[in-house]
Design goal:
The chain is an all-alpha fold. The protein has one domain: Alpha/alpha barrel (Mitochondrial carrier fold). The protein contains five helices and no strands. The chain starts with 6 loop residues before the first helix and ends in a 10-residue tail after the last helix.
C-alpha cells in the first residue's frame, strides 16, 4: 500500500473524498426518492436528507478505497511478468476495487436505506443498533453479494473503457 509520503496517494484520497462528499450531499434527496419508489413506501418529504450523515461518513473511505485499490492493484500486477498495462490488468484491478470498497459501500447503503424509508426519523446510531440486534454483523452486509454481481462487471467495463480512452491500454487485449 502507498505510504504517507506518496503524493499520488494523497491526491487521489483528497480529490475522491472531496468530490464524493459534494456529490453525495447534492444527490441524496434524489436517492431518497429512488429508495422510496423501490421500497413501495410513501415518501415523507421530511426524510429527504435522512441517512445523509451515514452516507457522508462512509463515502470518503469507500470511494478512496475503491480508487486506491484499483490503482495499487494495477501497479502491483504490472510488476508481474504475466501482466502489463492491458485490459486483463484493468479488469482484475476493478474486481479487487469492488470487493474492497463494497465492504464499506454495503453497510452505508443498509444504514442509509433503513433511515430513508422509516416512517419517523431515527438517529444513525439507533438504526445501527437495530440492524445489529436483528441480524448481527451480517445485517450490515445484506446485499453485498448481489452488489458485487452488479458492480464488478460495471467496473470492469468502466475501467477498460476509461483506460483505453486515456490511452492506457492496447486494443488487442480484452477481459
Amino acid at each position: 500500500m502507498p505510504n504517507a509520503d506518496d503524493a499520488d496517494f494523497w491526491n487521489v484520497a483528497i480529490a475522491s473524498s472531496f468530490s464524493g462528499l459534494i456529490s453525495r450531499a447534492i444527490t441524496h434527496p434524489i436517492d431518497t426518492v429512488k429508495v422510496s419508489v423501490q421500497s413501495g413506501k410513501p415518501l415523507n418529504v421530511k426524510n429527504l436528507y435522512s441517512g445523509l450523515f451515514a452516507s457522508l461518513v462512509f463515502t470518503s473511505p469507500a470511494l478512496s478505497s475503491y480508487l486506491l485499490t484499483y490503482e495499487e492493484t494495477k501497479k502491483f500486477l504490472k510488476t508481474k511478468k504475466s501482466f502489463n498495462d492491458n485490459s486483463v490488468t484493468h479488469c482484475l484491478s476493478a474486481v479487487a476495487a469492488e470487493i474492497v470498497s463494497g465492504l464499506l459501500w454495503t453497510p452505508m447503503d443498509v444504514i442509509k436505506q433503513h433511515m430513508q424509508v422509516q416512517a419517523k426519523s431515527s438517529s444513525t446510531m439507533s438504526v445501527i443498533k437495530d440492524v445489529w440486534q436483528r441480524n448481527g454483523l451480517k445485517g450490515f452486509f445484506k446485499g453485498y453479494g448481489i452488489s458485487l454481481i452488479v458492480y464488478v462487471p460495471h467496473s470492469m467495463i468502466y475501467f477498460t473503457v476509461y483506460e483505453k480512452a486515456r490511452g492506457g491500454t492496447t486494443l488487442d487485449d480484452e477481459c
